[in-house]
From TrEMBL:
<comment type="similarity">
    <text>Belongs to the plant acyltransferase family.</text>
</comment>
<keyword id="KW-0808">Transferase</keyword>
<feature type="region of interest" description="Disordered">
    <location>
        <begin position="211"/>
        <end position="231"/>
    </location>
</feature>
<protein>
    <submittedName>
        <fullName>Bahd acyltransferase dcr</fullName>
    </submittedName>
</protein>
<dbReference type="InterPro" id="IPR051283">
    <property type="entry name" value="Sec_Metabolite_Acyltrans"/>
</dbReference>
<keyword id="KW-0012">Acyltransferase</keyword>
<dbReference type="Pfam" id="PF02458">
    <property type="entry name" value="Transferase"/>
</dbReference>
<dbReference type="InterPro" id="IPR023213">
    <property type="entry name" value="CAT-like_dom_sf"/>
</dbReference>
<dbReference type="GO" id="GO:0016746">
    <property type="term" value="F:acyltransferase activity"/>
</dbReference>
Amino acid sequence: MAGEVAKEETVVTKVKILKKTNVKPHKPLGKKECQLVTFDLPYLAFYYNQKLLIYKGAENFDETVEKLKDGLALVLEDFYQLAGKLGKDEEGVFKVEYDDDMDGAEVIVAAAEGIEVADLTDEEGTSKFLDLIPCNKILNFEGLHRPLLAVQLTKLKDGLTMGIAFNHAVLDGTSTWHFMASWAQLCSGSTSISVPPFLERTKARNTRVKLNLSPPSDAPEPAKSATNGDVIASVDPPLRERIFKFSESAIDQIKSKVNANPPEGSSTPFSTFQSLSAHVWLAITRARQLKPEDYTVYTVFADCRKRVDPPMPESYFGNLIQAIFTVTAAGLLLSQPIEFAAGMIQQAIVKHDAKAIDERNKEWESNPKIFQYKDAGVNCVAVGSSPRFKVYDVDFGWGKPESVRSGSNNRFDGMVYLYQGKNGGRSIDVEISLEANAMERLEKDKEFLMEA
């Protein structure tokens, strides 16, 4: 089937932490700092961004760990901000600070030799990843006293997992995968990375915003992970997470359907992203069984590198994303053909030009609001990551990942992550978090699964 549902299976993870070390840049860099800008600051109260790469092979685990640590020390010479800490200057402006005396990135080495790669790639959900990825439910502003990058390398029966936690106030998805590709490049024998990061954040926004951040006083006492002591939040309502795999053929069918009857006056065809977004928005709205008058919101975290004035290079290191919203009544959305939803999404994206970005920044700077990851609103569908990211090209020398997933952080009812499909081409994996009853209905939606 075109929208194949990942196989469900129960796996009990038994992960033993073997050691924790820190990795600094390979050579001394001296003292460096860089101001966080308006594009970075709203994410301070999000959780660390978590990714899990699952690999087969890598036969000699101890040698592999040392090779990865050596490569990390080299890549941190260019991406030194990830070896630093968050800080504030005397005026309360957040910044990234680096000094050779700092500890650097954290590397955790672990073993789960009773677990096979297939156990992790077949199962729905993210609870099994809890002990494989560091920084569970750690807020980004805790980077004031925590590493900004933590890596956990876990030995499996037939491979390894690389669980990575990045401080989201320091970088976005584009920067995350630029870093990962560069690290893999150095581990594969290159003497230098092909595209150094562009580190001058104030070129994108040179406004000093003062913030006074402290942990919420009404936060419940968190639970702790059995193996690494990281915080785990209780989840309500119960969510389920699943990956739905759409082949090239399914993606082409969706795109053809959306573009078959373009709205009157429209001259721009709907992109793959806009077409798939409409397909997902409609399906989730059906699955939620909303009242016709209930509003539903579609949110895209859009890359603004080419939208800002002046444009920033693709290698800009930091956050250069903004959330773009479009909203309508559920009844209207579901009563219209799919090109109606695609048109709303396309229009919202097109309108988000340099002027709109500048206005949004000025509005936020005049009244700074620190968002929580679940602030997107009720009945929201929010899209993160991108099938443009070459996640399956992250090869450290023993082969491409078997699977790439997001961890349990920053998930809420309606959170969607898009990844390139493992088979490449135009295939796309859609990872959806949804309230359990709605997920059950989505799994039976033949129109969504492309079985109709």
